[in-house]
Structures are given as C-alpha cells and as structure tokens.
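ok so dumb question maybe but i'm new to this and my supervisor (M.) told me to 'just get the structure for Probable cytochrome P450 4s3 isoform X1' and walked off. so i did the thing. is this what she meant?? sequence i used:
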Amino acid sequence: MALAALVLVAAVLAVTVYLLLNKRRFQLTAKFPQPLLWLPGIGGLADTIYHYGLSGMAWCFGYYKRFGPVWGMWIGPEFFVITAVAEDIEAIVTSPAVIDKGKNYALIWPWLGDGLLLLGAKKWHARRKQLTPTFHFRILEQFMDVFTEKGVVLEGLVDGLVGKGVVDLRPYISRHALDVICETTMGTQLNCQLQEDSGFVQAVKVACKAVDDRHAYPWLRNDALFRMTRIAKEFYGALDIIHGVTKKVIADRKSDLTKEMKEGVLDADNNDEILGTKKRKMFIDHLLTMHLQGEDLSEKDIFDEVNTFMFEGHDTTMTSVCFTLFLLATHPEVQDRVAEEARSVGGTSTSAQLGELKYLEAVIKESLRLYPSVPLYSRHAHDEFKLPSGYTVPAGATLLINAYLMHHREEYFKDPSAFKPERFLSGSSEESSRHHFSYVPFSAGYRNCIGQRFAMLSMKATLARLVSKFRFLPDSADPKLDLDVQVVLVSKSGLPLVVERRD
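this is what came out, is it supposed to look like this??
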C-alpha cells in the first residue's frame, strides 16, 4: 500500500514538473483551435484515432469546418500547427528561421540519407547552391531523348490495352516514371517498363509501401517498435537492393569518367575531344564531375543525392500524370483540345515543342491544384514563430503547410472543386489577382522543389504523347477517386480507364 502511494506521488510530481517546465508551450498551444485533449501534451486520443481512420483528406475538411483554416493538433507528445492561409505560408517558406523540415521526414532518412530533401539549414544552403546549375534548362534539354525513348515504350504498352475494357493504367505510368528517373539520374537503362517483376522494380514498390505505412500508423514511427515488425525487415531488404544498384552505378560511372578525363577523351563538360561531339550527361555525371574537380561533394553525398532525386522524381511525377489523365477522361472536351494542341506542334521530341503546349501546361497546373502530389509540407520551429494569421507557434512544434486545403478554398479559387484549366492561361483575371503563395504544388520559397522544371517537361512529354495517340474514357458514368494520403496523394482505386486509339 505504501509503495503504491509512493508511486502515485512520484507520478504526480513528474507530471507537475513536466507541466511547469512546459508552461509557456502549453500557454501558446492552448490559443489554437484544436481537438479536445485527454491529457495536456499527450494528445487527443479519440480525435487521433478518428484522424487516422479517415480516408484521404476527409479529416482535413472535417477540421477545417470545425476550426477554420488554422488549427493545432497533438499527435502523441508532438504539437502540429496546420495552416491553409497564403499569408502564413509566405511567412513560413520565406523565413530562414523555419527552413528545417519537420521531424516526420526522418522516417525516410534510411533511404535518402543526407540528400537535399532532408539536409538541415547549415548544410542545405551550400548544397542547394551546388546542385542548382545541374537543373539549368540547357542541361534539361539533354533529357529530351530519354523522354522520347521511354515514351515510345509506354505508347506501345498502352496500345496493347486498346479493346481490353477497363484497365488500371497506374502500374504502367509508375514503371514509365521509374524508367525515366533511372536513366536521367543515373544514366542507366533498367528497362522497368518491360521488366515489371525485376528485383529493382519490386524493391522500390516495397520501400515506398513501408514509408507509407510509417506515415499512416503512429506506432510505426518509433524506430525501436518499427524494427520489430515484418514491414521493417522487408523495408531494409528492399533498401539493400536499391542502394546496391546506386553504389554500383556510382562506382562504374566514376571509373569511366576518371579514365576518359585522364586520357583526354572527355573534358570536364563531357565534350568528346576526339569526335568533337557532346555526350549525354546525366545528373550523376554532373555530381561526379564536381567531385573529381575537388568540390566539397563526397561519394557519400553523391550517393544520397542520387537516391533523393530518384525518390522525389518517381512517385510525384507518376501520381500527377495519373490524376491529369483521370481529369482528361472525365472532361472529353479538354482532352480533345490537348490532343489537337499536341498534334499542332508536330511532336514532343524537343523542349521547344513542349514549350508551345501552353494549354497542356495549364491543364497540368490545374490538375496539381486539385490533386497536389505532396498535399502537406512540414517545417520545424526551433524557436517561437509568429504567423500573420495572429497565432504564435511554440518552439519545438511542427508547422504543416496544407497545400491541398488551400488549393480548395473559395477565398483563393472561384468554384474551387471545378476543373478549369483556363485559370492558369496567360492573361486570365484569376491568375493575376491570386495571392502568389496560394498555389504551392512544388512548395515555395527557399526550399521549393529544385526539380520542378524537370517534372513539368517530363509530364508534358508523357501526356502529349499519350493524348495525341489515344482517347481515354472513364470507367463508369459517375467515376470517383478514392483519395489516400501516403507519402504522396494517390487514388486507392488506381487509375481505371478505357483506352481507345485516336483517328
């Protein structure tokens, strides 16, 4: 009895000390509209369970109706501030005080390491400066041949689906995106589209699923608990395969580049000194050239950056193309206009031709508004941070930029649920009057997506080729998307469409 009383007293004292030490934090968090707590600083159990039981962004709209565009939320001992206010987002993404990513990004560190996506502020600035030239438009032009080659393969596979009724196109789009990113990043042809059962393709699929599960289920975020699961065993096994490919490609390409530069066959800009031609130079070549020229970029840095670009460039592009095809299938008049425009420029083999596809670009931008690949971005507040909406974010909290909700707010987009590509055509009144930070499909500010021009070129090349050759129809008279927020926004039902050849 005495022991029980002693334990109770100790517990009460521990909680009291905890609350006193965090008094300022709780004063600030209490000012945010938020779900009811069952214990301060631990989280609203019922709301947390309810939150994870909802599909897609339903939880987001539920809280928006209850609390407005800014609210707070405890998930375990961590406090989140969610905002869908453009002025708040401008303040967040343009402030060096909150440049570090949220703690949830640590879940993908075993895969990506210290690549640009996960680097802290101190190292990030220098690395961003190093990598920016590798995404210059002149360099992206060299990727056009890859877009064309991989697009031809995809076209052949989709042609084989004609006459087969409703088919799920997402696996085809996914493997195509993986093919493109493998060659443009590593300069290697893994033929993912034609070898769907290859170890590499399956490893990427398993690793992505494990990352999704860790985001979806709070108990899997604890490293100790996660490592005890079957999912962890599969995840680390998949990473062994993915990382093995990356390491081999880096070693082989470094050996080739070193030999060619020593023999004078290839200069630092990848010019063939003997033939007087320029070889295709991929992302890895630029990084290795920096390394060989003595820049502050180690082989481990290159390894992490290659894995990062592979990760970021695959799922995001795939899901964007899928959502755009769905919207085109459900809006045949828009689809026909895209097909006509694609045919009018005479092909998709050059960046100049893709640059003429203004309407297709507006279609893609509107698709990204309705279905942003990354619906939520997070930042870590090391210190207190004042939001223009009037709230003060406590030190240690995670800021969540809710791009999905903001893109669906009437304050920023008229008739926000409607698919209207003309919003993004040059000269539209909506385009000129909209708050600059109300549309953030590639994030914004300091840590905006470094590869967004690459992504747009890739998506335009893929969609223009497909829509100019095929007509896509919905699977029913009333097609629906079953949205799910994983690492990226996806449709749990895939991309069920009917494919017909165009005349």
